[in-house]
């Protein structure tokens, strides 16, 4: 074949390759642009330049959640004497609480279901992940076990439950469940803050689903990592509840008061969530996402994973509030819009939060 034809063919191939490369780059750029557009409205909307971490509306949502969970109409009472002493004792114990398993409660009905799923040959890995996620304490134990030298394949932390379940396998999971059976179940005497455990489990599941939906829409972070981080703040609430109850036992003849528990949770939830995440040996990116909540950054200033945690938690709380008829769907949607989400993304996270299966 004449050299001129070869040269022409090579030139044509180069042109085709260049065109394909341009198309691929353009597609990636468009995808990145679309993902970014989902997160926040266009720059000309002044809303995105000054969005606080919390507003009167988000604080009211949180207040409604606590009022519902503790069965009180208000909790803005002054705290003094023995009750103030309980808060001091809790604050001194915070550094160790993330490592003490007795403060990490079990869900009563989960372990039998999980054992059944492990023995069912038709159960999928996704089925196991969803069951484990229903118990944040077990989720943490699963991640911790997967991050030990025996299981972890390289220096990269294991922070996806799906990957952790794959590494542990059925035998490793059975071992974890056997140990979990020996740990405390979250049960309280009737008449004593009866609604708190169920409401907090519900919030955990709704927040996890919303965080996963946000990350999936943005396509910047692993949705399953966002899912795990979405339950951590609710787990911190549960740990703080147990810790506060424990400290009340050390102050004789004093009945626990709801405002003490709520004050502790409002003051220390973010910090304890970060400490729990550290104990799970997750990545620096995950720790940074939780640290952003501690520093109460504007969502505009957060990393994409930090925003997944932030909006997941807010949408999870709104999901609880709407489910219990404290807010309308329109009100919940408006709050997310005011905090920086677009119509499309607000729809996605609220839809995920509403559909979350938390009742098991």
Overall CATH architecture of the largest domain: Orthogonal Bundle
Fraction of residues in helix: 55-70%
Q: Provide the low-confidence segments as ranges.
A: 5-37, 41-47
Global morphology: globular
CATH class of the largest domain: Mainly Alpha
**Count the helices. How many?**
14
Would you give an account of this structure?
This protein is mainly alpha-helical. The protein has 2 domains: 210 residues, Hypothetical protein af1432 (Orthogonal Bundle), CATH 1.10.3210; 80 residues, no CATH class. Helices cover 68% and strands 0% of the residues. The protein contains 14 helices and no strands. The termini are far apart.
Brief summary:
With 360 residues, this protein is mainly α. The protein has helices at residues 3-39, 56-70, 82-97, 110-119, 125-133, 136-146, 161-181, 196-218, 223-249, 258-279, 284-294, 304-323, 329-338, 343-355. The longest helix is centred in the N-terminal third of the chain and has 37 residues, at 3-39.
């Amino acid at each position: 074949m004449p050299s001129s034809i070869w040269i022409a063919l090579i030139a044509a191939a180069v042109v085709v390759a260049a065109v394909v490369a341009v198309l691929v780059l353009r597609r990636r750029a468009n995808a990145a642009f679309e993902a970014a557009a989902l997160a926040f409205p266009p720059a000309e909307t002044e809303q995105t330049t000054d969005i606080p971490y919390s507003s009167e509306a988000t604080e009211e949502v949180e207040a409604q959640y606590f009022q519902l969970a503790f069965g009180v109409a208000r909790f803005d009472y002054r705290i003094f004497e023995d009750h103030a002493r309980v808060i001091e004792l809790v604050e001194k114990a915070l550094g160790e609480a993330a490592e003490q398993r007795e403060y990490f409660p079990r869900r009563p009905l989960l372990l039998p279901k999980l054992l059944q799923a492990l023995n069912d040959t038709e159960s999928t890995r996704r089925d196991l992940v969803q069951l484990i996620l229903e118990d944040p304490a077990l989720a943490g134990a699963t991640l911790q076990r997967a991050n030990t030298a025996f299981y972890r394949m390289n220096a990269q932390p294991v922070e996806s439950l799906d990957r952790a379940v794959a590494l542990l396998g059925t035998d490793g999971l059975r071992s974890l469940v056997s140990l979990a059976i020996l740990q405390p179940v979250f049960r309280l005497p009737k008449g004593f803050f009866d609604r708190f455990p169920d409401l907090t489990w519900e919030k955990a599941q709704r927040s996890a689903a919303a965080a996963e939906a946000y990350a999936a829409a943005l396509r910047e972070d692993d949705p399953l990592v966002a899912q795990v981080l979405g339950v951590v703040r609710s787990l911190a609430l549960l740990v703080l509840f147990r810790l506060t109850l424990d400290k009340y036992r050390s102050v004789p003849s004093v009945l626990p008061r709801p405002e003490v528990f709520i004050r502790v949770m409002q003051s220390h939830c973010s910090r304890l969530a970060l400490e729990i995440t550290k104990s799970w040996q997750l990545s620096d990116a995950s720790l940074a996402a939780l640290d952003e909540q501690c520093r109460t950054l504007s969502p505009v200033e957060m990393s994409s994973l930090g925003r997944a945690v932030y909006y997941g938690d807010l949408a999870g709380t709104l999901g609880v509030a709407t489910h219990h008829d404290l807010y309308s769907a329109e009100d919940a949607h408006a709050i997310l819009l005011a905090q920086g989400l677009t119509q499309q993304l607000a729809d996605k996270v609220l839809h995920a939060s509403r559909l979350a299966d938390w009742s098991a």
